[in-house]
Amino acid sequence: MHVTIRSCTKQDVQILTNTIRQSFLTVAKRFGLNGENAPRHPSNCTADWIERDMTRGVSYFVIDTENGIVGCVALEHASSEVCYLKRLAVLPGHRTRGMGRELVIHALSRAKDLGVRRVGIGMIAQDTELKDWYRRIGFTEGETKAFPHLPFGVTFMSYDLEKGMPKSRY
Predict the structure, then answer these.
(1) Of 31, 52, 35, 51, residue with least CA distance to 43
(2) How many of the other CB atoms lie within 10 Å of CB of 137?
(3) DSSP 39
(4) How far, in Å, CA of 75 to CA of 121, rounded?
(5) Whole-number Å distance between alpha carbons of 90 and 24
(6) H or E stretch at 141
(7) Residue 116: CB atoms within 10 Å
(8) 9-18: long-range contacts (C-beta < 8 A, 24 or more apart)?
(9) What's the pLDDT tens digit per position in 14-32?
């Protein structure tokens, strides 16, 4: 399968919004999230969110196959030491084919080019399947925190770029 990952522009805002919303609906259903109890969950993503991110320098990337765009990821350059991986999304019909892994590897590579040492991510603490998936890539689990505005705990994981890069499958 031929895959291409490319940087996004403001012309991609609607496809990013749709991809993120559709991809995160499965998570929202599994954990009972909605616009009232988790308004900032990516299943409620709007074009305004993406536009604001891009305006403040967050980079978005999409993965394109012969079936069209099937996923995306965002990378926020938070400091000279850290980037944050955000909104990793793969459409449900295209999961388990390595698309998410390729998006993560691409984001890690971009972070390394920026000279940071670590890439962090936050996720629903109860999502053990997702934590295991990130562990297989090489992320390590950190602390879990409760936030009063969220109906779930958040586990933070990180990837130490000084230990090298995971291997691409494509």
Answers:
(1) 35
(2) 14
(3) T
(4) 10
(5) 9
(6) strand 140-146
(7) 21
(8) 10/51, 10/54, 12/60, 12/62, 13/47, 13/50, 13/51, 13/54, 14/47, 15/62, 15/69, 16/50, 16/60, 16/62, 16/72, 17/45, 17/46, 17/47, 17/49, 17/50
(9) 999 999 999 999 999 999 9
First to last CA, the chain: 8
The token pair that represents 36 in the structure block:
């009232």
* CA-angle at 19, arms to 77 and 82, nearest 5°: 15
DSSP for 46-109, written as a single string? -HHHHHHHHHTT-EEEEEEETTEEEEEEEEEE-SSSEEEEEEEEE-GGGTTSSHHHHHHHHHHH
**Chain CA centroid to CA 48, Å:** 18
Summarize pLDDT for 100-152 with one digit per residue, the tens.
999 999 999 999 999 999 999 999 999 999 999 999 999 999 999 999 989 99
Q: In this structure, what token pair is assigned to residue 74?
A: 């965002």
Four-point Cα dihedral 42, 48, 52, 58, nearest 10: 40
What does pTM read for this prediction?
A: 0.94
In sequence order, which residues have a C-beta less than 8 Å from that of residue 75 and are 6 or more positions away? 58, 59, 61, 83, 84, 85, 86, 107, 110, 111, 119
N residues, the chain: 170
Tokens of 68: 């069209």
